[in-house]
Specification:
Two copies of one chain form a homodimer. By secondary structure, the first copy, chain A, is α+β, with helices and mostly antiparallel strands. Chain A has seven helices and 17 strands. Chain A has one domain (27-37, 44-62, 100-375): HIT family, subunit A (2-Layer Sandwich). In chain A, 27% of the residues lie in helices and 24% in strands.
């Protein structure tokens, strides 16, 4: 009955709870019977944190994400920096030498996936494969104490340009089936360091939620010839759950949100492709992100939140699935029903949530478009 | 675009955030494209809590679940009490008069489902149906400050007898497709009151996780004629992920756990039926529950946790799905990857977790079986 994973028992760790054990990492496992995917990554328990288990905030003396402390992280692999009036991207070894960066991207020191995983595919009844992949950190601003909602439109464009670059690059790598960029903001949302940053994780297979989107889209195309997401967007961008819209994007609270005040941002056009979006569209996206993040922060008093990009690979995009952004404020706990049955109790209807978020987001949008510099 | 749910706008609420809105409750909605189920229950925001948003513990002056305070809750519908040497169950109106109860069950004042929901089934592209059902509270002990791990075997038998009674009764009601008993222990796990209690929620449809279990079992029976859960149990009750076993039950850390130190308790026999389990089996279950809950508490220093019973209706049980218990310690936060892609990162492999939990659980089991009274 021994599983023979001794090859990946690498280091010894002492958990906060005083439990000692050898490290196992780099396994992607599937549940016996359901679609639950689990990455076993014991090394990740060693990562630094600004937070203590007691829930008290204890900022680190020296933030590894701040300018000047670059040596505390792995070398940069992509940097966006200012040069005169231009903003330039440098990648590879050259990136590390860029002065006064605006966005800096490097490998996560405590990755949940790795290109050096030792785990082999498992034959037999238990599904296991190497948790093969890339895990990057993208520092979203040089300013440590800036909140995500305080990041200006121009800087969001810098972040989105860097992100587009990284996602495109990652989708060209071997063994990458899905690239998932996301934000954990605030301790409640799973953040361990305060300085605003994104994470980008790649997976060797399509995760359950994205796979279900693809299946549902395919079925609808096959049966009706229509894109269901286009119909949903047409409906939601005018209805009681709409937030604000820009030239290329619409934001709305979804019909069955798993989080109170959850909202989504979708491109309006079916053929839109994040990987090929021109600067004008990225600026438009930055505008609606800044407006709605500020709207959420003002309505809900800077809540912790997760933000996740659903970006399919170029092939998948061109035919079927709209790429999009989902934002989950973290106001309530998921308890037994959510975790044990996947039934979510939401104390705020999306119709109520939209009424609140629409007003504050629209106010911020109108403030932004009055400024020529969009900051 | 108005959804016309004015019939269910009943009361006005002020959220902690200062947002005012009319109440919408009693809707069960399905996501546009995926299997996510959401109950919209705005009235639930009004429920009392021992906890504040700041995360500070503030016990209520008077606990509605304590003996003597019964008038603070709806009338009891099922009570288990001591009479001489015997333990008796009373239900209906008579239950309210039982003195010195050991287990007391009544309707949740802030239910997530209701038999009086005003929502109508929705025609059209957006799935909606009434969140029709029952939501009960079962107080697990008269002793306010007792931890779940401190509840003795005899008292666990009382709880399990009451639970068996309630689940059986609920499965006989109209519009009940699934009965879900669960425990939220500790603020991190979503509990709002400290006094140890279970919740029992019924749903008018089978929730995604249970439905996937059923489908996987049916497929396996069709293709191989074998019960996959029997094979899993045979393997796990001897392997590196085993915890302890009693005459009728085996406990183990599952192959792909979504929580660190997650463990499951399964009946060993395929034909086992919680609804018809005799007292001997319930006592055996109480023994393994008490042993593993104590093991978990000692290993992990009283962690917050969720415990959920997967109990199919009698028809489903007899043929296919094993009923079982799942326990999730809440040591880490679910962040963007978990919530946005349904990919779970686990810093403790079940093999490591089992090594830790096995030792403390076995110690408690051996302590318990040395005592004649099993307390």
């Amino acid at each position: 009955m021994e599983l023979g994973h001794s090859a990946v028992l690498q280091k010894t760790i002492r958990w906060p709870l005083g439990v000692r054990a050898d490290l196992l990492m780099g396994e992607l496992r599937k549940d016996y019977l359901t679609d639950r995917l689990v990455i076993i990554s014991e090394e990740r328990a060693r990562r630094p944190t600004d937070f203590k288990t007691a829930g008290k905030l204890r900022p680190k003396a020296k933030c590894p994400f701040c300018p000047g402390n670059e040596s505390m992280t792995p070398p940069a692999e992509l940097v966006l920096f200012q040069s005169g009036d231009a903003r330039l991207v440098l990648e590879g070894e050259e990136a590390e030498h860029a002065q006064s960066w605006l966005v800096r991207t490097f490998k996560n020191m405590f990755p949940v996936v790795s290109t050096e995983t030792a785990v082999k595919h498992r034959r037999g009844p238990l599904f296991r494969e190497p948790a093969y992949g890339y895990h990057y950190i993208m520092v979203a601003t040089p300013v440590h104490e800036q909140a995500f909602s305080e990041i200006g439109v121009e800087q969001w464009v810098n972040v989105l340009r860097s992100l587009q670059h990284m996602v495109k690059w990652l989708y060209r790598r071997e063994g990458v089936s899905q690239v998932i960029p996301f934000i954990n903001h605030g301790e409640e949302a799973g953040a361990s360091l305060l300085h605003p940053h994104l994470q980008i994780v790649t997976l060797p297979l399509t995760p359950p939620l994205m796979e279900q989107e693809v299946h549902a889209m395919e079925r609808s195309f096959r049966e009706t010839g229509l894109c269901p997401m286009c119909s949903i967007l047409r409906m939601e961008s005018r209805g009681v759950r709409r937030l604000i819209a820009t030239r290329y994007f619409a934001s709305f609270c979804p019909w069955a949100p798993t989080h109170s005040f959850e909202y989504w941002i979708w491109p309006k056009r079916h053929e839109d492709d994040f990987l090929e979006a021109p600067l004008e569209e990225l600026t438009d996206l930055a505008l609606i992100m800044k407006s709605t993040l500020t709207g959420m922060s003002e309505s809900l008093k800077q809540p912790p939140f997760n933000l996740i990009f659903h970006i399919p690979s170029a092939e998948a995009t061109s035919a079927k699935v709209h790429w999009h952004v989902e934002v989950y404020p973290r106001l309530a706990k998921w308890a037994g029903l959510e975790r044990g049955a996947r039934v979510y109790v939401n104390q705020v209807s999306p119709e109520s949530a939209a009424r609140v978020l629409r007003e504050t987001s629209a106010k911020e949008l109108s403030r932004l478009v009055k400024n020529s510099r969009l900051n």
